[in-house]
Input
Amino acid sequence: MKILIINIKELVGIDESNRAYVSGADMGKLQTIKNAFLFIDKGLILEYGSMEHLFIPEDWKKKGIKVIDASGKLVFPCFCDSHTHLVYAGSREIEYVDKIKGLSYEEIAKRGGGILNSAQRLHDASETELLGDALERLEEITWLGTGAVEIKSGYGLNVEDELKMLRVIRELKNFSPLTIKATFLGAHAIPLEYKGKQHEYVDIIINEMIPRVAAEELADYIDVFCDKGFFTVEDTERILMAGMKYGLKPKIHANELDYSGGIQVGVKYGALSVDHLEFTGDSEIKALLGSETMPTILPGAAFFLNMVHAPARKMIDAGLPVALASDFNPGSSPSGNMQLILSMGCIMYRMTPEEAIHATTINSAYAMGVNEELGSIAIGKKANVFISKPIPGIEFMPYAYGSNKVDAVILNGKLL
Ligand code: NIG
Ligand code: FE
Output
């Protein structure tokens, strides 16, 4: 399908130089073209520019070009959501009420709620049920402007159920037009039967789960919840080393509940990203500077659990890049709405709209290893873009936080 979008009020997120990610002060400089066109063919972005330089062939219909008039509308690269747990069974609104009444995330987890509750439900669900529910969630986020999503296992917590989750994610890759990456997160929580002897569970992850996951080529990345009450730095090192032997690059949960050492261990093992980061101080920022690890903030979880906020402003001002992702999961962030994440980035973290747009597109693309094909408007990149409704300008995207500003979605060069 050849698509020519004309009269675009503003084409947003252009990057001629094809940077892998955008850091520090550059995050505030978003490249756009006003009154622009965008030409898509064979699933790719082939050309863009100012309408003044566009020559539309008279026989465009004969040439099979679909022309879309985007007068008054903006065109963006689709969001890349680099951190989700969107394969899950059932919701957890009862715990949500417990939280409102004052129980902490850790207290709920200690009572066998939280992740262990989702693990029990996942165990009881069939692959078909999990697939159906996850496809519905993917459909929903597609119409909110997401074009790529990372999905983690981690509600299995035993060999068979972890494999079951990852196989569902593999099926999603076949069924969905979204670009999907899979992450193995066997180290998401310690099953009740391993309480007090968690090294035995870590042994199972290393000796049984990782080799099976690798043999079936079910995962692109490996994750560990390295935090207070969950996995220690030592556990994390052992697991990451085992995964890396099979080519699984780390992307880890770090510093959500405490100064856990998670950020430092992530950097040490060349993690693609370290995620959450509520507890980030000067030494964590120092560790991240000069590394290739993307600091990723998950505003949905901080909002939903009423947590302290990661110091996004301080990180960007120190010269770091920052990515934002949804953390879509039933316990700490039951939404995959990246438009809302964009708003939260601005409102809760004092990021400018330009910074937040970089954080949800090119930087989050890097955080899930798809920056060469996605995350910006550049010639040769995959055509995953959305057309907004008629809106005044880019600031309106985070400003109007309650409504869906997406009018049309193009994935892999096809208008949905
Ligand atoms: O990223 N923090 C750890 N894991 C998830 C929560 C998962 C759950 O509560 O079900 C997170 O927030
Ligand atoms: Fe998470």
Notes: The radius of gyration is 21 Å.
